[in-house]
Amino acid sequence: MENLDYGVIGNCRSAALVSREGSIDWCCLPNFDSSSVFALLLDKEKGGNYQITGVSTQSIQQKYLRKTNILKTSFECEDGSFEVLDFMPRYMDSQGIYHTPPELIRIVRPTKGTPKIKVIYNPKLDYAEFPTESEIMDSYIKSTAQSKEHESYESIYLYSSLPLEDVFHAKEITLEKPEYLLLNYNQKIGPIHMDKIELEFEKTKVYWMNWSAKTNQFNKYQDEIDRSALALKLLTHQKTGAILAAITTSLPEEIGEVRNWDYRFCWLRDASMTIAILHKLKHYRVASKFIDFVLEILPYKDDNVQIMYGIHGEKVLEEKTLDWLKGYENSRPVRVGNAAYFQKQNDIYGVLIDMIYQHLLFSHSTMHNREGVWTVVRSLVRHVLDKWGRADNSIWEFRTETKHFTFSKVLCWVAIDRAAKIAQLFDMPKYASEWKSLSEEIRKDVMVKGWNEKMGIFSQAYGEDKFDAANLLMEHYGFISASDPKYRSTVLKTYETLCKDGLMLRYNSKDDFGMPNSSFTVCTFWMIKSLHRVGETEKAQKMFDQVLSYRNHVGLMSEDIEMKTKRLLGNFPQGYSHLALIDTALTLMGIDTKDFDLPLELEKND
Q1: Which domain holds residue 16?
Q2: Rounded to whole angstroms, how far apart are CA atoms 117 and 533?
Q3: Residues 254 and 387 occupy one common structural domain
Q4: How many CA atoms lie within 13 A of 61 on its CB side?
């Protein structure tokens, strides 16, 4: 049985997964959503990888350099020891522009003796669809993959202070001094030398330490919060401000089944929740950039709001399968693109208006384009007025059926409630009054039709007797009080039904692919927060400590946890899981948004 024992490195342009044995098993260049260069994660035979290892390795340790996204893998060998420092350069240059090349640097340093090492360099470009050819040039190894039939071409360049011939043929190399390997999507211009590599390392290290220093400090869980915040930052796209759900595609929710999706896109729901956390952590500029991204892609007056977009704002995310890849532990199919982009999920309006409202609270006096924001809010309200009474696909993206999902109705209430508050902020009392009346109408509808008196819960959909962990969020969004008997009953009975050995299922009914069996990590955090809110503090604390123990060796989490084995499954690292970890930690510490000071100005270096 394998676990997702990977560290992630990146620079907010792309990212890579490094195994605890020092093998890069997943990397896409030049961007997050580009085709893969290494994909051993999805096919151990065809995928390709890039490993640095000892010839006589006895033990391996891996950890992040403190408060950075630089990964250190340490090897103890019979003939000495060495360490590999993996990072992707990121820092602000002298002109105030972020330096984020499509580049991966590995520094190899002997720490004792003169150990023998070996480099296994096996790129498989373009998702390994066509053969990759590599050759040694004057100062680099060039790898190419092309298909005249499909008119496709990809190439990458590996530079190194190590003998290229030895790297190319995976020969033994005696490590006597620090060496480097630099992989770039582009051909480098100008000489490369160790001093320049070390400078890239130091600048990147300082950048991450400066970024971490801005994170709010707490009296508990600081290391867990810092690592989760750093993971969330790695999922932000520098150019547009979009926030990815994860850096991988097709890591299965359950081994051997078909719940395999491409998560290298921006789900507005996930990202908006990330914004709330970034505000709490005082990373205001990241939040501001994402708001700008959303306002740029949202239509002002037509009806084309999507639940998700590409990281460059793409609206069409056509889904296809890569049938030549076996998938993670033979879990087919491997998918790129995501057909969920055209689904109708009525909760998205609540997500968007709540996100705008949160940001206005932090930047009301300085926010630019207020008229444009107001137009967007009014347009979204019109959509809610038209759609809140209709069926939809829900937060869980059911592909073959629409229903009157309770959670979707609650989020329609959120949309109108927050819109009314925005109207008050903008001194628009007429709109505030009208929207307040509409929010009360929606709330009454949910309280009557969403409540199942026989079961004593808010059910998954109107008129049904199914549980849904999403309904735990009713209190989190302010729809209902934690002291309300109906909410308390929903929490406790959902715990009894959906919680198995401290881990939560999303729901207890069949979907398009059968009955779900793995725990959806974010739902476990929702339950912990809900238990705490209804007074079950000891139970909540025990669950939280338990789920923290399921993080991998460097503190990262995926989308799912297998119920029996507790192994990590699903796409990785999952932003939704890490933001919920932070939010839950703050809740258990008794910290809420109102406890945070508003920013006087945005930091430039964020």
Answers
A1: 6-212
A2: 54
A3: yes
A4: 9
**Which domain-ending residue is among 212, 232, 267?**
212
Mean pLDDT by 10 residues, the chain (606 residues): 90 98 98 98 98 97 98 98 98 94 98 98 97 96 86 93 98 98 96 97 98 93 97 96 96 90 91 78 86 82 81 94 96 94 85 88 67 90 93 75 92 97 95 97 97 96 94 96 98 97 87 72 97 97 97 97 94 95 95 52 50
Residue 145 shares a structural domain with residue 191: yes
Considering the domain architecture, whether residues 189 and 257 belong to the same structural domain is answered as: no
Question: Domain for residue 564, yes or no?
Answer: yes
299, 405: one domain: yes
Residue 605 lies in a domain: no
Q: Which ranges constitute the DSSP H helices of 426-520? A: 429-449, 473-476, 485-498
pTM of the model: 0.94
Alpha carbons 252 and 260: distance in angstroms, whole number? 5
**Listed residues 212, 231, 257: the one ending a domain:** 212
Q: pLDDT tens, 266-293?
A: 998 877 777 778 888 988 888 888 888 9
In a domain, 598, yes or no: no
203 shares a domain with 223: no
CA distances from 433 to 202, 413, 429 (A): 56, 15, 6
Q: What is the mean pLDDT of the chain?
A: 92
The residue type found at 532 is: H
Q: Is residue 529 packed enough to be buried (19+ CB in 10 Å), middle (13-18) or exposed (0-12)? A: buried
Tell me the pLDDT tens digit for each residue of 379-431: 999 999 999 999 988 877 665 678 999 999 999 999 999 999 999 999 999 99
Are 110 and 230 found together in one domain? no
Question: In 3-state terms, what secondary structure has residue 28?
Answer: strand
Identity at 286, one-letter amino acid code: V
